[in-house]
Predict the 3D structure of the following.
Amino acid sequence: MVTAVLDPLAPTPHGAWSGHGVRVTRRQGLHRRHRGQHTVCTPRFCAQRHGRLLTVEHNLSPDELCDELAVILADELVDTGAVRGQSEFELVFTGIVRSTVHGGLPAWLRFYRNSLDKLEHGTTPFAAIHTWAAGQVRGSRMIDLGSCFGFFPLRMARRGIDVVATDLNDPAMQLLKLISTHLRRPLTTRTCDAAAVPLPDGSADTVTALHLIEHLPTDAIAAVLDEALRLARRRVVVAVPFEDTPRECYGHIQRFDLTTLRQMADEMAQRHRGISARAYAFHGGWLILDR
């Protein structure tokens, strides 16, 4: 699915955000029960459809703005049918961040600081994945493919690693670059396809692709892994979720298990002479390619 192109820093009224047929507001006062055929009320949200317009009212506080918002939205709005598909999911996500703290940069800084604090102090389920991935990185230069918000590149930049974060989403990369400057975690960003990164062979010691390839069509996965190996002098680190059914709202279209990953490891080792490949399970699945 093609998602809407957003300017994450676009001006918006205090306590409200709208774009691409979605309007999000932060609730003032007590919850008033909404009624109607196309209405869903949950502990944190009220969502209503009026023709092509989806309105979402919420009561989240600035302290709750973090990456865990994705799970809350999936549980309360996607699973109840109030939010449909990846594009609406991302629009509502953005709207909640922007309507909770006034001003584009202050809102996203709060979101990033909260998220990094939870990830780096181990108080969110995804923290174990980031901690494990950090332990797999070799050398002093890293390229991250499909960085999205770029929490992992920011984590490694704090350690003094020379990091290049990449993603197809140019506004996300511009935001990440701005945030990295304000957080004093310097890194480089590149807007590009993970299968065609405009950097020379062997540009990094380690190339990471954390929860990326589940978003890709089957014929694109091998191209991305080949590109990662082209860029890596020493190691490629790939992480995937193990899901019974791919989560559409997150943009997942592939389902992985340990058997699938082991087959991928065998195929990569056969296709690329001089590398070793191993797959294992730990909070999802991992594929490690070493020269």
